[in-house]
Amino acid sequence: MPITGTLADAVRVRAPLRSLGELPRYDEVTVTERTAPGPPGAPDVRVRVYRPRVLPSPAPAALLLHGGAFVLGNLDAVHDAAARSAAHASAVIVAVGYRLAPEHPYPAGLEDTYAALTWLAANAAGLGVDPSRIGVSGASSGAALATGVTMLSRDRGGPAVCFQHLTTPALDDRLGTASMLEYTGTPIWSRPLAEESWRMYLGPGLSDVSHYAAPARARLEHLTGLPAAYISTAGLDPVRDEGILYALRLTEAGVPVELHNYPGLYHAFGAPHRPEDQRRIAAEHLESLRRGLHGS
């Protein structure tokens, strides 16, 4: 989502969450709102479940984590994407309303995501989901949560994730890559916004940043054994190299990776006067999610 001004300004005017009745309906998909038990001592996590009306059970599923620099966005922001993903991928899509920084810094959003993942796995039978085919999908900061929860769940002995679908991922709080140093004033996303985002997400006084928070910090042993990944980056995006370097490190760790870099586009694949490219990329993203969840 384009940001004008600072993230702090945008946080003060966040859009409220709408009810399902206020949102578009889709002929091919049913949408229900549920709550997953939250982390210990925290509120329950609101989720929206998108299910194709014609879907054999058990079906694959994916958590969908919205972007928004860890501080913006909500379930409404991915309503259309979740419905389209469910229909095209022939899968159950569960969008997660995780808590946002700066009011709830790390690890609140990640713990909410893990709570939603464990809820999905525990309720797989009732949702018509195959618990062995649960993936994660996220864009930008949502991709950081997707990668973080994949490692966290593995290390806690939680539900196994079968596939990671990551678009323009923001993964590195150190902000030292070549693309981050070059694209300091690009549209949609820039280095100053990235600095503000990570500062708000990590909160004050956090000196030892975990790889669960910033997955680019993961050592090779943290990456070994992770599920296959699809990663897409934009050529004029400050976080471009974070996604590319993460893909290379996953490959080094023996993880199957499909990497696409789309030149000439900004963060989240924004670009003026290029709707054909944007439609093509959206179609490729949907198809890669379908392939990943169905094991093809």
Automatic annotation (TrEMBL):
It holds the Pfam family Abhydrolase_3. Keywords: Hydrolase. Residues 63-269 form the Alpha/beta hydrolase fold-3 domain. One of its GO terms (molecular function) is hydrolase activity. InterPro entries: AB_hydrolase_3, AB_hydrolase_fold, GDXG_lipolytic_enzyme. Transmembrane segments: none annotated. The keyword Hydrolase applies. This is Acetyl esterase/lipase. It comes from Sphaerisporangium rubeum.
